[in-house]
Structure formats: C-alpha cells, structure tokens
Amino acid sequence: MNDTVYILNGPNLNLLGVREPHVYGSTTLAEVEQLCRRVCAELGLRCEFRQSNHEGVLVDWVQEAREKAAAVVVNPAGLSFRSIPLLDALKTLDQPIAEVHITNIHRRDPIYQQSLISLAATGVICGFGAFGYELAIRAVAQRLATAAA
C-alpha cells in the first residue's frame, strides 16, 4: 500500500479566508494545510498538499499521483462543474479519490450543484467547511487499509 495522499486544491482556494468569508468561512488555506498534515501524520500517511489556479497543473498532479499509486483528496473548486480534462485524469486512478467541497454545493445556486468530478470520486464530502478535509483523509485512509488487508 502506498502511504501517500495527494491533497489537491483548485482555483481561488489560495484566497480562502479572504474571498467571500460569509460563504467559505475564515479558515485560510495555510490552516487547511496544517490540519491535513496533522491528520495524515496521525494516520501514518505522507501528505502532498498543493494548490493551483491552473487546470493543466492539476491534471499533471493527478497523473503524478497515478504514477506513484497514491490516493487523492481533491477540492476542484470551480473546476468541479466544467473540467472534462480533470475528470478524465481522475478516472485513470486506481486508488481512492475523495472529493471535498467546503460548502454544501447542493444548497447553492444551480450552476454550483452538479460536479462532474463526482463521476470519478470514490466519495464526496461537502458542507462541513475545512473539517471536510479531515473527513476525506480519514475516509481515504480507511479505504487504503481495507484494500491492504
């Protein structure tokens, strides 16, 4: 079992805590990273935490995760609703994929309700703020442990 989890964050998530805090909360991406690194360490997992505003970079990172047989936690942000290239890259993975959204996308405007990325995800966590990342890491770890048993 590969003990690495790629935690990938899409466009504008570098602005967490600043951009629309009434929607996304006041937690910064740096704080999310600290949370993810703490949870991964607790579970004995290595953490590759990354963010990009560029679709192709995210696709490259998914392909890198595939080469390393790593699990993926992804918050695709705005790419959730339009990115066929990211969806296609995620579909090539054999390891668990957890899709995370800070908000409950199902309670938002229609344009934000249907994530294409969910078609590739093992599971989706939305609406729990930054805590959703912890839930996603724990879910992926559980899937990895089950597969290794």
Structure commentary:
- The chain is of the alpha/beta class.
- The chain is 38% helix and 17% strand.
- It has helices at 21-24, 29-42, 55-67, 84-90, 131-148, and strands at 4-9, 46-51, 71-75, 97-101, 123-126.
- It has a five-stranded parallel sheet with strand order 2-1-3-4-5, with helices on both faces.
- Helix 2 packs parallel to helix 5 and helix 3 runs parallel beside helix 4 (84-90).
Q: What labels would you give this structure?
A:
single chain; 149 residues; alpha/beta; five-stranded parallel sheet; 5 helices; 38% helix
Distance between the termini: 10 Å
Instruction: Tell me the number of strands.
Output: 5
* Average residue pLDDT: 94
Instruction: Output the helix-strand order.
Output: EHHEHEHEEH
User: How would the global form be characterised?
Assistant: globular
Largest sheet: 5 strands, parallel
Task: Briefly summarize what is shown.
By secondary structure, the chain is an alpha/beta fold. 38% of the residues lie in helices and 17% in strands. It has helices at 21-24, 29-42, 55-67, 84-90, 131-148; strands spanning 4-9, 46-51, 71-75, 97-101, 123-126.
What is the topology?
Blueprint: E1 4-9, H1 21-24, H2 29-42, E2 46-51, H3 55-67, E3 71-75, H4 84-90, E4 97-101, E5 123-126, H5 131-148
Parallel strand pairs: 1-2, 1-3, 3-4, 4-5
Helix pairs in contact: 2-5, 3-4
